[in-house]
Amino acid sequence: MSQRPDSRTFGRRRFLKNISLSGAAAMAPAALRADESAAASAAPTTAPMPNIAAETLPPSADPVTQSSSGGDFMLEVLRALDFDYLAMNPASNFRGLHEAVVNAGGNQHPEILTCPHEEIAFAMAHGYGKMAGKPMAAICHGTVGLQHGAMALYNAWCDRVPVYAMIGNLVDADKRLFGFEWAHSAIDPAALVRDFTKWDDQPASLQHFAESAVRAYKIMMTPPMAPVLLSLDAELQENPIRDRERLAIPPVTRSVPPVADSAALAETARLLVNAEKPLIICDRMVRTPAGLGHLVELAETLQCSVVDMLGRLNFPTRHPLNQTGRRAAVVAEADVIVMIEMMDAFGAIHSHADRIVRRSTPLYRPGTKLVTLGCRDLYLKANYQDFARFNAVDLAIAGDGEASLPMLTEQVRRLLEERRRSAFEQRGRKLAQSRKEMFEQAQADATLGWDASPISTARMSAELYAQIHKEDWSLVGNGINVWWPLRLWDFDRSYRWNGVAGGAGLGYNAPAAAGAALANRPHGRLSVAIQGDGDLLFVSSTLWAAAHHRIPILYVVHNNRAYHQEYMYLQAMANRHARGITNAHIGTTITDPDVDFATVARGFGVHGEGPISDPKQLGPALARALAVVKSGAPALVDVVSEPR
Amino acid sequence: MKGTDMRVRDSLRSIALAALLIASLEAVADVPPGNATHGRELYLAVGCFECHGRMGQGGYFNYPAPALAQLQLPLEAFQALVRLGPHDMPAYAETVLSNADLADIYAYLHSLPGRRAAKDIDALNK
Q: pLDDT value at position A236?
């Protein structure tokens, strides 16, 4: 065990008593190993000359080396859980595990991702978890680090994404040394994030750790997925293992996602088949690559409208039945609406007026049958209100959306009658025509301001797509409300889009995109992200992490030089008072000086292009940057662009 | 009672809006009388471009902000919409933008180039 001096006796008297050690210790034979000497002998008692070194040297009998540590065993457990990466910003109270990973583990499986901020570490894990379909582990200081990282955990919680979070803590007050070790310790460090993590524990022994680590993994991966947190005692990490033969790592058995009740699905199928204008709305339904295919199968069987709220890519954007761009219209005409894995079912079927008198109005007709299917009802917490407004429905089905879809489709098929097939096909043809018109409208709208400077977001998106559409591309991030890719691009596979932050907390996009690009790397996919300037300023050192770890990703900075959503909100407030917006830029814009993101990127070792304000220069700049990305490195193009 | 009044007012407002939108389907034939140069200055100064784009290309707040270049909406309907502010659009009072100002902005929107043929732009056909 590591011997920490007893602070109660580590005073002047003891100093004088022990100063004879100064010379003796320097010439001491091989020091004791901790695991060879369970109890160190008492300190010598002679009183030689004062010496500064004496104050820093431990008693000679104290062990100075050890042949094993709890961190080594923790590494075994993490390997059993098959983590490829451990994202971190280094911190003293997990130095035991850190050392085990880099030396005992050779920095492989998991490999450490050095992140310049804990928010970056957790957000990388968030983005990776969605794209890879498997979680990333991340670790930080238990107090100061977790406070930095809390925002990213909240985003992952709202987004229902597994993040395996760990923190270091020094539990035993008797073992804490001076000032900062106290500031960096807590009796319940997980309390800070307990409202937005699914489960946490602070194991008291290595066996306890093994079981809690497996339990945490299992809980995290069972829908509804969410972050979990383990607090690792520093002593447990650092001390030698006394009884390795007693320790056992439980087998990792993941829970099968809960499939909805078959009778409820049969009733839903009956409603859908008998409806004149059925509508399916999805948000965070797709968990695996198979999910998108399941929804296509159901929609094509019914020839019904689908609206994708795009928490994940649930449905191909150019599919003829995709009516996302007509949400209000198809909700208004629907007689049955089935909503699957929704973050905000109420919000999706109401219109909202953000005015002095705030109100929400149903978009759907009275009498429309409303059905929800998802894990939302299985697990909620009270404090943070990400569960959205209560929405009364006719049938609420608890179960995993993706896992339940094949059974729902099967039930629909059973009820299909040949005589209705032509009506279904006619419905499908009308929807296909609407989809075609929506796309043509988007193309025509995109021509407006095509040659203008600042560059239109439509042109920025179209120029980017023109250069990647023949590649196996993946849009791993999108700044707030740049909606053109979703209107113009052909998102035909689930990995083409990695969803959004969940909690809409700034500081998500850049690191989550890097995490997703890391997940794309072994597949050879071309990862691109449209990156808001405000978000990048929160976490700009993500660029260094991307360069350091050779993560191939193109950041196209949508540089509107403002926290623009807030700018618009301030404009709305000013207008309420009829005061004009002359001062709405104060506190909302990022000018004077303008940020030169290409120079910032180069400072972090990333290829930087820009600032590009001439639309004619955009295509060539993107081409140069993409060449760098294809060589295996990150690149950035700073596009001075229209606000939206 | 207050709630009922509000619902009645909302209903009237909805009817008025619907009428305006129906009217908008009729193309505006004549060149509007306002001062487009002053309209451009106002369009930028009062923040129309924040959501609708400098070239009237449209954008997004919490709801889509429609394209305004070559706006096919009668001036009176345009003025009424700006005073009301549908969805999350800030309503502009007359003390901030007079009807004459709105006429100038309207003229500016009509001076902007409209949609082109998308088939002529290679990047829009991928």
A: 98
Instruction: Of A67, A40, A74, A128, give the one whose Cα is nearest residue A542.
Output: A128
**Taking Cα atoms as reference points, which of B125, B54, B123 lies closest to residue A456?**
B54
Work out the number of other CB atoms within 10 angstroms of the CB of residue A174: 9
Residue ranges and CATH numbers for the domains of chain A are: 70-246 (3.40.50.970), 262-434 (3.40.50.1220), 447-640 (3.40.50.970)
pTM: 0.90
What is d(CA A599, CA A605) in angstroms, rounded to the nearest whole number?
10
CB pair distance less than 8 Å for A447 and B116? yes
In angstroms, the separation between the Cα of residue B92 and the nearest Cα of chain A is: 6
Task: Work out how many CB contacts closer than 8 A connect A with B.
Answer: 127
Identify the domain containing residue B82 by its residue range: 2-114
The total of structural domains in chain B comes to 1
**What is the distance between the alpha carbons of residues A265 and A273, in angstroms, rounded to a whole number?**
12
Interface test with B, best of A575, A589, A622 (most B CBs within 10 A): A575
Asked, for residue B125, whether it belongs to a domain, the answer is no
Q: Roughly how many angstroms between the first and final C-alpha of chain B, as a whole number?
A: 57
Rounded to an integer, the average pLDDT of A120-145 is 97
Alpha helices, DSSP H, located in A327-456: 327-333, 345-348, 401-415, 418-446
The phi, psi pair for A610, rounded to 5°, reads: 120, -170
Q: Tell me how crowded residue A544 is: count the other CB atoms within 10 A of its CB.
A: 19
Classify residue B66: in a domain, yes or no.
yes
**Mean pLDDT, residues A389-395:** 96
pLDDT score recorded for residue A400: 98
Query: What's the Cα-to-Cα distance from B106 to each of B31, B35, B42, B76, B80, rounded to whole Å?
Result: 10, 9, 10, 10, 12
Return residues 489-518 of A near B (CB < 8 Å).
none
Which residues in chain A touch residue B116, judged by CB atoms under 8 angstroms apart?
444, 447, 450
The answer to whether the CB atoms of B54 and A459 lie below 8 A apart is: no
Cα A636 → chain centroid: 21
Please check whether residue B123 lies inside any domain of the structure: no
C-beta separation of A116 from A94 below 8 A: no
Residue A86, SS3 per DSSP: strand
Write the CB contacts of A308 (distance below 8 Å, at least 6 apart in sequence). A281, A282, A314, A315, A317, A322, A324
CATH for B69? 1.10.760
pLDDT-based confidence at A392, cuts 50/70/90? very high
SS (H, E, C) A361-395: EECCCCCCEEEEEECHHHCCCCCCCCCCCCCCCCE
* Phi, psi angle pair for A519, to nearest 5°: -70, -30
